[in-house]
Amino acid sequence: MNQEWSLGFVGLGVMGEPMSTNLVRKSSLPVHVFDMSAEAVARVVEHGALAADSIEALAQQADIVFLSLPSIEQVKEVCAALVASHGRAKMIVDMSTSDVAGTRELAATLAAKGIDFVDAPVARTREAAVQGTLFITVGGTEKHVSMLRPLLECMGSDVLHCGDIGSGQTVKILNNMMVFMTVNALSEVLTIGRRAGLDGEVLFNLLSKGSADSFVLRNHGMKSLMLDKFPEKVFPLVYAIKDAALALNLARQGEFAPHIAQYTYDLMCRTRDAGFGQNYHPAIVQMVDGRITASSD
């Protein structure tokens, strides 16, 4: 790790704030942060970050800029601002979940302007972001990934080089789609079990002892589905729908029509339309078991 580097971090949301905080605490490098939320910036500054008044100001200070943003559109906008500023930034690391084709196009555009680009989306929970134990899937050259690894390991316990640009996004998107489909399956199993007279907690605890055990069962299942807890600001359904749409887009590009993924996407959309778009995405169980319908207010 070059001790002369100065870092930037744009996007201090649910995941970005704890990620940037860990980068500040563990990298021993100056980290300049920017977000539209002054409160989020202030919290990270309390841990030693340096506040930037704008993206352009951040670009004048940072050699490597990390992004944690809602979608590829915001990523493109921030990258355009970084380029237009003619600042120090020579590498951009997108830790958002972004469209694969858009990621590759953006990387090519930036390369023509002398700026390297790496995609490094994150998986696991907000608690993992706080603890610095995220799963980070990285797309880029071996040289760039090796150079970034010490910084990425400040935020994640598992940093996986998946291949060339866009490969990190591909793995992340499919990881999330698998989670959503598993939550859908657990919702159906829970509904059948309850109607057969089994308590949800008993059922999931028993399933965790056998071949049905999984990370999703122990987390989304035990911590949300069986407890009927679907708080806001914890990977809301609208975010899940966005990621599922990215997975379906990948399928279309490969001329494949998935059935389970499409059904799960449609189910999430119906749950959103019933008024649960900002709730934690396992809220779909309420649609599965019939407690709500898409026409609910």
From TrEMBL:
UniProt-listed GO biological process terms: organic acid catabolic process
Cited InterPro entries: 3-OH-isobutyrate_DH-rel_CS (IPR002204), 6-PGluconate_DH-like_C_sf (IPR008927), 6PGD_dom2 (IPR013328), 6PGDH_NADP-bd (IPR006115), HIBADH-like_NADP-bd (IPR029154), HIBADH-related (IPR015815), NAD(P)-bd_dom_sf (IPR036291)
Oxidoreductase as UniProt keyword: yes
Domain 3-hydroxyisobutyrate dehydrogenase-like NAD-binding: 166-287
Regions that span the bilayer: none
GO molecular function: NAD binding; NADP binding; oxidoreductase activity
Active site: 172
Matches recorded under Pfam families: NAD_binding_11 (PF14833), NAD_binding_2 (PF03446)
Domain 6-phosphogluconate dehydrogenase NADP-binding, residue spans: 7-163
UniProt entry keywords in alphabetical sequence: NAD, Oxidoreductase
Gene3D superfamilies given in the database record: N-(1-d-carboxylethyl)-l-norvaline Dehydrogenase, domain 2, NAD(P)-binding Rossmann-like Domain
Domain of life of the organism encoding this protein: Bacteria
Family: Belongs to the HIBADH-related family.
Name assigned to this protein: 3-hydroxyisobutyrate dehydrogenase
Source organism phylogeny: Bacteria, Pseudomonadati, Pseudomonadota, Betaproteobacteria, Burkholderiales
